[in-house]
Amino acid sequence: RSSGRRILDPSLRGGDVTMARAVPHPPFDAELKAGLAVVGGMFPPTITADLIEFMRTSYASPPMDEEFDRRRIAVNDVTFPGGDGAAVNAAVLRSRDFSGPHPAVLYAHSGGLMFGDMFSGLDLVLDWVTELGAVLVTVDYRLAPEYPDPYPREDMYAALEWLAAHVTDLDVRADRILVAGASSGGGLAAGLALAARDRGGPRLCGQVLDYPMLDDRCMTASIEQFDGIGVWDRISNETGWTALLGEQRGTDFVSPYAAPARARDLRGLPPAFIDVGAAEIFRDEAIDYANRIWQAGGDAELHVWSGAFHACDIFAPHTGVGRSMIRTRNTWVEKILAD
Known about the structure:
By secondary structure, the chain is α/β, with parallel strands linked by helices. The chain has helices at residues 30-40, 52-58, 65-70, 126-130, 151-165, 167-170, 184-198, 221-225, 234-245, 283-295, 312-315, 320-338, and strands at residues 73-81, 87-95, 102-108, 135-139, 172-182, 206-210, 272-277, 300-305. The protein has 12 helices and 8 strands. The chain is globular and about 55 Å long.
């Protein structure tokens, strides 16, 4: 995953952030811990606002044309109007080896709401295209802070409406549209499921929320435990939410479509797959979100991976934990898309 990415000067890591506080935290898996130093070169533990431009270079996806050709995936670029009518770009991926009608996946990439592109982390979900025959639509939603809330979430909702309006052209089953995302993309996916329910929008068959970024209030115990260590720490989280929400972060004026943990009613949502590491900041809010879905009578499958740091399946997919995460997620997606 580091191919083509710029490596961070060690002197820049963490900027001028105050020394991390010594709060006990669950241990990292031994195999994953060995890879953390390498990960830190392109994704430092602490991201401050002055590192956003660096991260946009570091986290940019390397070219994937050879991978698409090797896996016999056809890619078509599309453009549709976003929530404000401005053009938003996306890519439609489909296998050359499957005939329709296809299930569909609408994908929101990771990147803390501030960086990344529509191909970031996409290699993790290509099996859904090549093994399950899904048509995958991945969206280049607009990024904060230049485009704060509601731009990213409304771009994703516009993508859902575009997909639903083109099911015939795409040879897609209207009853098998799944939304998925990782990290900040997981938060966008959760918000999209809420918005689709509340607005009477296209019906979703499921939502995949990988270590999702759900709560702008940043008050859980797991956030305090990972301060200056791992991937995406307390300060990074505050940086991302502030970029999106500005002075409204942490106030009563934040929409649950932007921060889904704020939703008071989780009834009537599509089945959810939620996974998260035990050794990362989003552990507690992911567990709480799954628990509240159950309390509302909904369907959620929750996996908390012992020793896993944030997005370890993206940065270390070759490890035992990374492989288990990918395999378990794919099994759930196969079940949901085949129903």
